[in-house]
Amino acid sequence: MAGNGTSVIKSSMDVDLETQKLVEKRGGWREFLKFVGPGFLVSLAYLDPGNLQTDLQAGANYGYELLWVILLGLVFALIIQSLAANLGVCTGRHLSEICRTEYPKIINYPLWLLAEIAVISADIPEVIGTAFALNLLCNIPVWVGVLCTGVSTLILIGLQRFGVRKLEFLITFLVFVMAGCFFGELTYVKPPAKELLMGMFVPKLSGNGATGDAIALLGALIMPHNLFLHSALVLSRKVPNSTRSINDACRYFLIESGFALFVAFLINVAVIAVSGTVCLEKDLSPEAVQNCSDLTLDSSSFLLKNVLGKTSSTLYAVALLASGQSSAITGTYAGQHIMQGFLDLKIKVWIRNIITRCIAIIPSLIVAVIAGPSGAGQLISIASMILSFEIPFSVIPLLKFSSSSAKMGKHKSSKSIIVISWILGLGIMGINVYYLITNFVQWLIHDHSLAKIGKIFIGIIVFPLMAVYIFVAIYLMFRKDNVVIPEKASLDTTTDQD
User: Fold this and answer.
1) What CATH number is given to the structural domain containing 253?
2) Which end of the chain is more exposed for a tag (fewer CB within 10 A), N or C?
3) Does the keyword Chaperone apply (predicted)?
4) Per residue in 304-341, is it b (16+ CB within 10 Å) or e — as a string?
5) Taking residues 168-188, what's their average pLDDT?
6) In whole numbers, what is the pLDDT of the chain averaged over residues?
């Protein structure tokens, strides 16, 4: 009986290995298309209303001069995002799950809370952007649009019941709707190709605020919740447990993410080109000049309508609606994985969605009712600053785990990738910390609405918190990994030698 059992096990293993060989040899476009989807969901972080507002302001202030920052930033983003995808493929776990197993509760719970705050902060511009779009298209008040976003997003997220691929298809469709709308805007403004190319490939910073705008553009290109999301989305694909299959999957996800981010890059270029071309016109009306001096998601539509016509404004509103709705969907989706990973908490998807959406809608609704569209626009800027603050607490764990033999085994990043990714990660974190500290100090010095004693009191509270912030980041950076994750590619190595 023992002999028969052994032969059955051997024959079963042989069948598994042969099946695996067939899967690995199949390759080609059909195999690649199975991996298409996660990159487009992730690319929306670079197309959300907060990023669009930053692009509009950069174009209005400096024309095409800062396009090279977008190009450089999205190359950086591709490297960081590919690390998140590789982590999920190679370990079979997503980033928040690995954080739960690696860090003690005293670290894990604050990391979870910060990740949730990042999701909510990213959600606020998406809610407001969608509300602005509904206001432009249907002429409803912004605060009513805020309420509508909650209902519409929850309905769209209901597509998850039909499978993640359906949701990915919807998001991909919305990305191309955005692309079509903004490329349509380009046909109205017809920017000079030579100046566009110069802006992309010739680094230049002129003017007093150019450096600050460049820092804002770079800082907006890494979204903390996006790293958790990407490492989780790749787990929806079945990857055979062999080194070759895992390497192929990592390569497919890299190509797919590269294409999705290239589309995102083109859309960002189109946004900057439109605002830059319009605001550089010499015969603008005084009202248009005023709009260009402080361009927001709301004022952009009036500028386009006055300068280019009503159709241009409608295209912009449709693009903004697609941006807000699609980004809101991915943000809620990221929140699900973050809660499940950090807390191992299984709650019904619709309950989780309602909680997340309500937390994002409440501040947006209050500001929209009290301060109107201008206050809502300022809330987007505040949310962007919070996201900048959050970056180290997702980037550092990702860089640590990706370069760890205990987590990645033989699939850990090469030395060159480790060095490059750490340089990029530390550079982005340094830029954001510098931007936050300098802005806070300037506000503290130049704001005359606060009494001197009030400024001293705020400084006494904030500067120690900044010291704690830097200390925790350094702790995460130099803490030794304690948990070993078994290698996913643990089958017979003969499958890698055929």
Assistant:
1) 1.10.4160.10
2) N
3) no
4) bbbbbeeebbbbbbbbbbbbbbbbbbbbbbbbbbbbbb
5) 83
6) 79
